[in-house]
Model the fold of this input.
Amino acid sequence: MNEINLKRIDWTSIITLGLLICLGLGNIFSSSQTYNLESIFSINPFTKQLIFVLFSIFIFLFIQLLPINFFIKYSSILYVFSILTLLGLFFFGKEINGATAWYQLGSFSIQPSEFAKPITALALSKYLSDLNSNLKKIKTQFYSFLIILIPVSLITFQPDPGTSIIFLSFILVFYKVGLPSIYMNLFVGFVFLFFLTIIFSPTQVILFLILSIFLVFFLKRGRRTSYKKILIYGSIFSIFIFSVDFIFNNVFEQRHRDRFNVVIGVEQDILGTGYNTNQSRIALASGGVFGEGFLKGSQTKGKFVPQQHTDFIFSTVGEEWGFAGSSFIILVYVFLMLRISKRADLQRNLFSKIFSYSTVTIIFSHFFINIGMVIGIVPTIGIPLPFLSYGGSNLMAFVLLLSIYIKLDSQRTSRW
Done:
């Protein structure tokens, strides 16, 4: 064990973390009114979340007592253990909402994929901080993507493609620490072409791509440019376009396909697939500027928004706290992410720097996708809002993530 250096700890981030957790408890209490809340000892989402908060406090304190070199020394072992827990789900896991992603422990359940996020961040930080690791080299790129691909594959086959998407955010970390820009260009292109191909036919998108290539050639004629690179991009994108149909119809389940179609406007189903998003929008709209008041949300009290205390907790915020309260919470998240990012730039230790960047990208991907789901610009794929949404695994995993960041940040001026 190691002493906690109170002077070097980022108390601002700790206070922000505590604030978000308290706000989460308040909104979970409000959105759980339809459960039995007569006694604080009754089993309901709010009292369960209180128990998870106590476990999270223990996790935070335990992490702060560990020696600083524990994380780099045992990150590989933790990664292997995480992969084994994901594999074990195929034999001992419990199916909930169509995905075998939980271990059942009495009245509680544990979701290993949530803990795989900070552990994968540790494994990547260790590998990329090695003296022989250089993201300009193909070998380093291969093993870096492999570290991500293993948990992504196991989580996708549960099937839980929503959670697996979060792991793609590590590409932003790669780009930050030296990954060639071609990968970021391909990633952005794949995302754009994926939605474009769903809306239109592959043939139409290919025609659009060909016209775009000819336009680039025309605009760059007479200039020194790499036509070979443009043709390579075009070839890769063409192959991807024709593979989208297979990915969309075979990797995603029907419920996921329906949600994509609702978001992009291919289908209109406010009583079926689009019901959650539609009711969430109604809740947000009814909140106005200052909200209907704590415990007074009509949509919340009427339980019109399914899973409101989990993935759609932000609709409770919008309805009861209004635009002002929603904006405040968004600003708190933005402040936390900017602070971690700024302090990551000050890190002298590469392992700590990479982990801090990973912390920001994981929080941002959850934050963006969850709020996007609530307002209807992102398909409903089951991504909780960090610290606010109900869920023990989610809360404890994010507290673990922040706890490790705070521990590493307390030693940011040393190279240890």
In short: The chain has a mean pLDDT of 84. The first strand starts at residue 94 and ends at 96.
